[in-house]
Structures are given as C-alpha cells and as structure tokens.
C-alpha cells in the first residue's frame, strides 16, 4: 500500500469532534444532548443576504476574480471603515472561509520548519493547519487565574528564535473569550517591530464584545502596516458558518502579492457566498445590537451558573461566545466522555470541548473545557442543571481539599 | 519588513492570467477580445440546481459535516454509479472546488521534498499547489506529434526515485484534450502497483468526450483500490465554476482518514454549493447530450480552422474543451502578447494561453498555445478569422522552410 505523508500523520484529529460518536450513541439511547462543544450559533442569518442570493442572476455561475468580486471588495472597504479600519480593495483577498484566509497567511509567511508563536489555549484547528504545512507552533501559556490575558513580553522574548516568522492571536479569543486591550496590542506591536515578524490576528468574533468593551483591529494600530495580517469571516458575524466566506487583509503589499499566487492557483472564492456576503453588508446595525444583547444574556446565564458550582473556575469572557472553565475533576476529557456515555439528568446531558485539545503544551488544560454559549438561555439553564448535577456524582470528582483554585 | 516564505516565492504566478493587463488595455482601446484563454464556459448552469438553492431553507446557513452533507454524498454515490464507479459515502470528501480536492490529495500523499510525476503539458495550477507545499513536480514530456498520448513506460521508470509518491494525470486532459485509453490506464496501474505509488486523476472533464469515445475513471479499473485518488468538481460538468464545489474520492481507507483531518481543520465545505450540487444531480441526462454536442460543434469548428492555417499543428482533442496547438511563430508568448498589444482584425483580437506555462521543462512549448473553445461557433469562427489574419502579418512568424512540423 502506498504510504501517506508524515506531515498529515502528525496533524492531530480535531479534538472537538473526537467525542461525536459518544454523543451519537447517547442520542440513540434517547438522551438529549446539549451541544456546547461547537461554535455553530442558532441565530438566524440576516434575510438581506439570502434575499440577495435568491434575486441574483445565476444563469451561469461563473468564476469571480481570484481576489474576489470587485463589487464585494468595495463593499468590504466601506464595511471595515465602520471599524476605523482603512483598507483598499487591493489589500484584501476574499477566501473560502476564514480557514483559507489562515492557510494563505501561514503559507505566505512561513516555510517548512519555521515557527509561529501562539498564546495557548488556542483554537485547536490552528494546529491542524500548521502541522500539515510543516510549521511549528510555539505556544506561550496564558493562565486562567489571569483571565487568559496576554502573557508577559519576557515570555515572548524567550520564545523568539531565528525560525520565528509570526505571532498568531485570536481576538476576541476562541476558546477563552478574552479581548485584548489596545495596550496589549501595542505590546505585540513592539515585539513584531523589534523582531521583524508578522502579527496574524484572527478577528472573526470582533462583533461580539460585552460590558461596554470595544474591539480594536490590529489594522487600526499605527506602525503595523508591514506586520499586520487579519483573518476575517462572515461565519460568526452573520451566523453564516456554512457559507465559507472569509477574507485575508494586509497592507503589506509584497505579502499580498505572494498570497495572490495562492489565490490564483485555486482560481476564485465562491461566487454564491460572495453574493450572499455582499447582501449581508446591508444588514442594519441594529442586528448586531440585538445579537450581542442575546449573546450577552447567554454569557451571563452561563457564567452565573458556573460560578455557583463548587470548585468551578471561569474567567468572565469579554468577547466571542465561549467560556473556558476549570472543573473539579480528575480529567476533563474523561469527564466529557462520561457525560455522554454514562450520565443523564432528566433525560439530558451536555457535550463540551475538553480543554487539553486547546493547549500545545502537554499536560495543560486537563481539568478545563470550553463551553460555546450558542443555545438560548432556557436551554443553557437546563444544560447547566445537567452539569451541576453531573459534578455531584461524577466518580472522578475531586474532594474540596484537592481543588486548587489558582493553578493552571 | 518581515520576510515572506521561500516556498511561495518559488510558486509561479498563474501563467494564464499574465496577459490579463494587456487584454484590459486592448479593451480600453476599443478592441474586442475573444477570451480563448480560460476555461469559463458560456453554457447555462442547469436550473435544477439554482431552483434547489432558491427553495432551500436558509434560515441559518450552518456548517455541514466536514466530509459534506450525508444527503449530498448519498446522491453522489448514485451519480458515480452511472459511470460504473462504485463508491460509498465514506470514500468521498466534499471539497471547496476541485482545487481543495487536489490540495488534500497532495498533502495527504506527499511530504516536503517528495516528488509527483506529471505528464506535461499539464494544467499550470498543479505547479502552484505543488510548489507552495514543497512538493517537486517531475515532468514526463508527452509529444504533440503523438497527439500527447501517455509517454512510454520506460520514461516513467526512469523518473521514479525513492522520493516519488504519486503520478498525477488529468483525464480528459486540460490543456491538450487527450483522453487516456483503458490500456493506458492499465499501464499506469502496473507502474503504481510495482512502485507502490498513488495515482491521482483529475477527472473534472469526464462528461465531455467526442467521436464516440468513452471516459474510464481510474476508480473503475480493477486492482487500483489502494492507489487511486480521484479529483472531481461540478465546475465544468454543470458550468458552475463559481460554486467551488468539488470532491476527492478514494477507496484507500487510510488515505481518507488522513484527508479527513484536513477536512476537519477547515470545518466544512460550502453548504450553499452543496445544496446547489444536490439539485444539479437531478439534471436530466439529455443536458449532457446537448452540451457535449455543442462543445463538439465548437471543437470541430476550431480544429477545422486551425488545420487550414499554414504551419499550424493541432492534435484532434477527444475530450474536455481545449485544443493545444503549435504555431509557426518565433515565440508563442510574444505572439499572444502581440495579439493583444498590437493586432486587431475588424476591431477584434484573440487571447490564448501561451504553451510554455503548461510545461515544467524549461524551453518546451515555446511555439504552442492553449485554446479553450468555450464560446459559440460564430464567435469561434470570427476568432479564428483574427488568428488566421494575425499569423499572416505577425513580425515574428516563421518562413515555411523554418517550420518543423514534427518537433515538439
């Protein structure tokens, strides 16, 4: 039999989906499963987009420009100006999802064997992309007791080597909900300027910030033009995950010239999704106010309930729609599997994403799990009832004196 | 300024699009340009697909399964059975275009530094993918005087090294229109079996064969289960290039497990395009008969006209919608640029794709160009009038005694 590649052998399977067979088995047994494991919102996709698609002339569904339809890019220019981000149509390439935007950013900035520094815990699929491209992710641990704030500059300095090509952040963060302050972004600027690195920021959750906080794009920070690469997507903004419509933005002209070669090799992004995306830009601003209010309500529901559970530690997320919590259990992976395999409460149980999969450093996050608050508050409350009941009976629960509330 | 990667620096820009600025300038001067340079057909996308999309419930455009919606994969199983290809829903991963299918196939089969053998001339974007993934394409030259038939087995044997992981073919071929016979596919089977290689076949043009010829998928050849990887797409089949909807198929279970890691990292293919694709499978078979008849008419128009031009050599394409011709000119690249920059005939000119971009071996194809017969026969005839007139006045035309009709 022909041998497959080592790079994909080294690529981890998606940790988020490992538990799927257990969830399917639970459902077959008649147990209802609250899916808090994935970031698929139940929010409706705004009708402006679907209307644009349904009214479009689709007589011949043709290739678009490799960088995306000019009309769509022009609307994106206007869209980003709302966020104090000033870009031109030449400074963006429309992509098949934020995933392809990340693929282009990584390929254009790093060779095989190069290193990209990423604060952990981080979105597990970053590892999938990096490993398959022979790029080494160098993690810098953020700590739950600091609410997952940006690690100290000294920690970054220690990790930088001649192989370092970029720092990759997710802001607001999947999986922690942490929102970087302008001061933190300026610290990152000083590092990437000093060491001549790219700063890649995944900003797909920018629209969802809470408690009066405001997201700042790295493209709005002065002195970053040569360094900043932004990954964006309509998936979360408009609850249109299945459209696979993203964009990679940079003011670094040479970087964009290089990325365009990759864009041309795959011919064009989806024309259907671009028509949808163009329509979605006309979504009234009130949509975001309403959706953010809804997510905020869910966030408060989940956080309040988690904080009421003995031994559970969970920083207050300021953005995105995830909470990253530490549980008083022997092992969160085992706990999550047990929830699906052996537990139910009034015929229901909960599926979460085990935390270890979000860390690159072996042994970290073993008591943690990510909760996506993508269900309505009633369902979330019932899900939290399950979780609370489960923590009381789980055989691997820790005794109160075994719980270390501070340690990561 | 941060440095970009060497692998993308080494990735060639799309040769097909190099002449685009000259075409744009011609249009600004008021010269009409017949685009024979790209494979964007003018054929209508069947309404069954668009109807499915317009009638779908798009309240929440959600992620699908990473391998594609089960309902779509089930319909694909039925679809492939029409071609005597027997596959299961587990033996396919739905992708964002044939491009992503190729990306998955290459990444899963080859490491950085590994080699993939490709008969040249070949689809230029194969190079874009391979170079950016640090995979070396090893070309084997097919010759115009043999109609671009499969090179001799000894040629393959000579090129195989310990680094060889796969042979990649396009059948029917973009850019030559060559259709491999069952005997040729069986020869390839003996090679991949003997050397334990993958055989990757890009079969996106399978529906368009002429002169009573029939396409055979490598998945229909016995003894290939562990070796065959098929790249497919709805782009050409249903004239839906902008949908970016492809699929990678293999009966090699381990290969598919590896490819699934890549599919999961990018979450899912486009849900919109899958709904379209599912509807398109209901397209009546008469559509293919009509479209093939139309392409055949165009093919005959182009070939007849080319054969009537002094010194032009062009094998008769048996599939796809491309003709690959050799012209009595000093350099086809210069000729193609001159056609756009300096020539017009009754206010019109022709854009072709210069042949050298389809060869990996330096110096080959310099008198050749690819013609996509994607316009109606009247336009093609007028385009051929332009080409014929151009060949009479082009300053770099060869004298009759300089033309070598046999050499490649």
Automatic annotation (TrEMBL), chains A, B:
Residues 33-344 form the Aminotransferase class I/classII large domain. It comes from the Bacteria. Its cofactor is pyridoxal 5'-phosphate. One of its GO terms (biological process) is amino acid metabolic process. The keyword Zinc does not apply. Pfam families: Aminotran_1_2. PROSITE patterns: AA_TRANSFER_CLASS_1. InterPro entries: Aminotransferase_I/II_large, AspAT/PAT-like, NHTrfase_class1_PyrdxlP-BS, PyrdxlP-dep_Trfase, PyrdxlP-dep_Trfase_major, PyrdxlP-dep_Trfase_small. Keywords: Aminotransferase, Pyridoxal phosphate, Transferase. PANTHER family: AMINOTRANSFERASE, ASPARTATE AMINOTRANSFERASE. Belongs to the class-I pyridoxal-phosphate-dependent aminotransferase family. This is Aminotransferase. It comes from uncultured Aureispira sp.
């Amino acid at each position: 039999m022909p041998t497959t590649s080592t790079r994909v052998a080294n690529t981890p399977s998606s940790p988020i989906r490992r538990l799927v067979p257990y969830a399917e088995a639970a459902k077959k047994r008649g147990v209802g499963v609250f899916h808090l494991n994935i970031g698929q919102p139940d929010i409706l996709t705004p009708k402006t987009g679907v209307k644009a698609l349904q009214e479009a002339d689709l007589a011949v569904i043709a290739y678009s420009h490799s960088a995306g339809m000019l009309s769509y890019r022009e609307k994106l220019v206007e869209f980003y100006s709302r966020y104090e981000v000033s870009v031109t149509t030449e400074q963006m390439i429309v992509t098949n999802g934020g995933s392809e935007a990340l693929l282009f950013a990584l390929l254009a900035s790093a060779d095989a064997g190069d290193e990209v520094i990423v604060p952990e815990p981080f979105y597990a699929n970053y590892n999938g992309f990096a490993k398959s491209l022979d790029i080494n992710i160098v993690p810098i641990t953020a700590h739950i007791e600091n609410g997952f704030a940006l690690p100290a500059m000294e920690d970054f300095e220690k990790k930088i080597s001649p192989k370092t090509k970029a720092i990759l952040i997710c802001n607001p963060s999947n999986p922690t909900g942490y929102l970087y302050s302008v001061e933190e972004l300026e610290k990152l600027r000083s590092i990437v300027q000093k060491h001549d690195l790219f700063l890649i920021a995944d900003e797909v959750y920018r629209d969802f910030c809470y408690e009066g906080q405001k997201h700042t794009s790295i493209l709005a920070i002065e002195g970053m033009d040569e360094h900043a690469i932004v990954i964006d997507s309509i998936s979360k903004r408009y609850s249109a995950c299945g459209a696979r419509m993203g964009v990679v933005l940079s003011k670094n002209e040479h970087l964009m010239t290089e990325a365009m070669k990759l864009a041309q090799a795959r011919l064009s992004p989806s024309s259907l999704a671009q028509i949808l995306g163009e329509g979605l830009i006309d979504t009234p601003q009130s949509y975001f106010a309403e959706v953010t209010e809804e997510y905020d309500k869910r966030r408060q529901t989940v956080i309040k309930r988690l904080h009421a559970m003995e031994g559970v530690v969970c920083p207050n997320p300021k953005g995105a729609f995830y909470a990253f919590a530490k549980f008083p259990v022997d092992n969160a992976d085992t706990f999550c599997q047990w929830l699906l395999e052996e537990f139910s409460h009034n015929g229901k149980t909960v599926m979460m994403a085990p935390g270890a999969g979000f860390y690159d450093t072996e042994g970290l996050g073993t008591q943690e799990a990510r909760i996506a608050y993508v269900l309505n508050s009633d369902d979330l409350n019932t899900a939290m009832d399950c979780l609370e009941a489960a923590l009381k009976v789980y055989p691997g629960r820790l005794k109160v004196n075994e719980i270390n509330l501070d340690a990561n």
